[in-house]
Amino acid sequence: MEAILSIIVPAYNVEQYLSDCLDSVVKQDNGKLEIVLVNDGSTDSTWDLCQRYAEKYPYIHAYSKENGGLSAARNFGIQKATGQYVYFLDSDDFLKEEAVEKLLSKIEKGAYDVVVSLYENLEDATGEKYDCGYHLEREKVESLSGEALLQYVMTGRVYDWYAVLQTVKKSYLEANNLYFEEGVTFEDARWTPRVLLHAEKVGYLDFPVYVYRRNRAGSITGTFSEKNFKSKLGVFTFIEDFAKQNGLSDKTRDMMLANMSNLYVSALFDTWSFPKEQRKAYLQVLKKYKLILANSARSYHHLLNMMWNVAGITPVSYLLYCRIWSNYKSFCL
Questions:
Q1: Facing residues of 9 across strands?
Q2: What is the pLDDT of residues 276-315, one digit of tens each?
Q3: DSSP 3-state helix, strand, coil percentages of the chain (rounded to 5)?
């Protein structure tokens, strides 16, 4: 039977988590699934685990490639997928029970280009679970498209641009060249707006399909590097270019920038990892996007904006550095 849904699982040095991830899928198999495992140049036993699962389950296809990052691994998985729809599952996370059944039921009810769903958080250290903090109205999502849809998902809330919230028809993805930008981090923030903007028919599943493991030691987004920092700045310039290229209104552009308020605050914090002159130069770049704090849906960010108006960007960024670094050390201890 031809697969209806291809679940693409990029894997890099996740020997500790991969079995949980794959087990969450295989126990939900109903004969309509394909799992595309992409080992992205792991140096631990990840590839051995991939091969073991592929030998045990005929609908799991395991591939190994040189390390190229998450975007490259996802793009590779898209090329290998044979299902009508593709879904991206990070190998350190897992699917909620009944996720596959509910996704397939939704897909088979309508010829959607994209189906949007929700997620649940899991604190890795404590095991605490909590939902994503927002729900959308199905009637709204399914009656809107283009710029109106982008505005709706951000109105009154912070919308997470995670790729794992979208199940996408493969033919739609390929026809619109909706591949992930390679060589950057925070690639989801560059991919999801494109996917939603160009879709003619979007479905909504009010269910937390995905379980996101928070604060995992060694995760890419939780690790500082100059590459990660520049990728954050790149998200802001991407939004400006994206809005201009697609003729979006200033309102939509500003909403999209404000939606990245957590990323912006983390960039302010990151500047204190650079030498003084480099930090000053990066703070000047970040000044250009001050409207992100002013327009954020988070009240804490409004407070930061007021403090900035009084004291300036440098004290605010240093306050964030002291506060977040203190919390980080407490978490590590």
A1: 37
A2: 999 999 999 999 999 999 999 899 999 999 999 999 999 9
A3: 50, 15, 30
- For the chain, the first-to-last Cα distance in angstroms comes to 51
Helix, strand or coil for residue 268? helix
Closest alpha carbon to 95 in 188, 196, 208: 208
Give dist(CA 88, CA 10) in Å, integer: 8
User: Hey, what are 34's tokens?
Assistant: 């394909």
Tokens linked to 66: 């040189």
CA distances to 79, 261, 264 from 307, rounded to whole Å, are 49, 16, 16
Instruction: Tell the residue number behind the tokens 């909403």, with chain if given.
Output: 255
| pTM (whole model) above 0.90 | yes
- Burial letters for 46-81: b for 16+ Cβ neighbours within 10 Å, e otherwise? bbebbebbbeeeebbbbbeeeebbbbbbbbbbbeeb
